[in-house]
Design goal:
The chain has about 220 residues and is of the alpha/beta class. The chain is about 40% helix and about 10% strand. The strands form 2 sheets. It has a 4-stranded parallel β-sheet.
Length: about 220
């Protein structure tokens, strides 16, 4: 199947695109987008891959679902488009960065700048129906993104995986920890963060320390 995705990812994942589940998933997504409002817009479904080629991946952050409010989702997990109010989880991410690295609070929640530096911002499910959280779960996306994570784990080395919350930890359970660096904590959502499971994890400085130790360029968070 011909999928409009960045060329290096197309090469690495072409086997997945030819699987029967992916054909069913494609039909489902096309029907959903045709019959109602879905997010992100069609051209941004694979934005995480388009901004961060397979060769460039240094860090992987695993999210769950795209935002389902109007104008929010842009194909990158936790990220919102320019001019859109930052959701609570993203605010908590930036609070931790400010505390950890003494960086100023950014003016936008658009994380394209991270993706362009080698941070794969991967949601487990890449599409969602407007105002219906989780509406495109269990249709095949999870199998596809499991294959993405497995491919990175198998074919690359010294990648930092940031697993925030129980869902992401489970999603990353098969990552080869003998050649990759896995950091875990609670989710940045207010429910988790306010219970003490997020703030103080220092994942952003720890990521950069590991990247420098393995002769890679650190991320400008």
């Amino acid at each position: 199947m011909n999928v409009n995705i960045e060329s290096s990812w197309n090469q690495e994942l072409k086997q997945e695109f030819d699987e029967s589940y992916f054909a069913k998933l494609t039909d489902f997504v096309k029907t959903e987008y045709k019959n109602g409002t879905c997010y992100p817009k069609g051209s941004e479904i694979f934005a995480a891959f388009d901004y961060c080629s397979f060769d460039d991946v240094k860090v992987v952050i695993i999210g769950q679902d795209p935002y389902h409010g109007a104008g929010q989702a842009n194909g990158l997990c936790f990220s919102v488009n320019n001019g859109i109010d930052m959701p609570p989880s993203l605010i908590n991410i930036f609070k931790e960065i400010r505390s950890d690295l003494n960086l100023p609070f950014p003016s936008t929640g658009n994380l394209e700048r991270w993706a362009k530096q080698g941070v794969l911002l991967l949601n487990a499910t890449l599409t969602v129906k407007a105002h219906q959280a989780g509406s495109h779960q269990n249709k095949g996306w999870e199998q596809f993104t499991d294959a993405v994570i497995q491919t990175i784990s198998d074919k690359k080395k010294n990648v930092v995986f940031l697993l925030w919350g129980g869902y992401a930890k489970k999603k990353g359970a098969k990552i080869d920890r003998s050649k990759h660096h896995v950091l875990t904590s609670g989710h940045p959502s207010p429910l988790s963060a306010n219970r003490g499971y997020w703030f103080g994890n220092r994942h952003f400085s720890k990521t950069n320390e590991y990247l420098l130790e393995t002769n890679q360029v650190s991320i400008n968070w």
